[in-house]
């Protein structure tokens, strides 16, 4: 397991009134722990702990048919399981409704050409493509689910891919068949350059904060979800919650989200490079296989 510090250094002259209950400033994240390759029978997997929020993501690549409106592209499918052990609010239909809400938001953020190179997932136009089935399991909830999930998805996609190379073979009758490589090292690595990270900003009073805890979330009027690439390009903006936000607040929150989101990518990439360089020698704590 590797840890990332996403906190900004604060000058001693900073006003204490700008600090939150746990001592963080408005743009500080809690410590993040990232572990990759935690589920053996997947194309990529990652577990992320953000404070006490605990997320597991497994991505499995399977061959399917392209969507009618995107005949030359692959796609992503999302399923979000809210464990009842994570918080009592997930019991019964509460967990189902939240899971659907999160999955719908993830579709908007990731299942598009701006975020993922979907054309590279196409095998034969209108007939075969790779579908990345992305399962998200919420193990523990202490606020800021979207950001933690996005870090886990990006980590799972950035790990050495296990999508096998494909060859199109033609039999004696002229029928085309798909042949997958048996070599476990003969795989395709997905271009993840533009895969965004999500920053959720919560409006509390006259200020907005990132990485809100459950207690801070309870005090929030409304939240703004901003997905940002490593180059600082915003790919999605979405308001969450029933409250309203004035135009000036929205502009300020988007600018903060853009700045903070861009800064998330480098430390995550560094830690994943470190994990990959360690290979099998890195400490394995394991999870479901």
TrEMBL record:
Superkingdom field: Eukaryota
Any one GO BP annotation for this protein: nuclear polyadenylation-dependent rRNA catabolic process
Compartments, as annotated in UniProt: Cytoplasm; Nucleus, Nucleolus
InterPro entries: ExoRNase_PH_dom1, ExoRNase_PH_dom2, ExoRNase_PH_dom2_sf, Exosome_comp_Rrp42_subfam, PNPase/RNase_PH_dom_sf, Ribosomal_Su5_D2-typ_SF
Keyword Ribonucleoprotein: no
Keywords: Acetylation, Cytoplasm, Exosome, Nucleus, RNA-binding, rRNA processing
Main location: cytoplasm
Family annotation (PANTHER family): EXOSOME COMPLEX COMPONENT RRP42 (PTHR11097:SF8), EXOSOME COMPLEX EXONUCLEASE RIBOSOMAL RNA PROCESSING PROTEIN (PTHR11097)
Family of the protein in this entry: Belongs to the RNase PH family.
Protein name as catalogued: Exosome component 7
Source species of the chain: Erpetoichthys calabaricus (Rope fish)
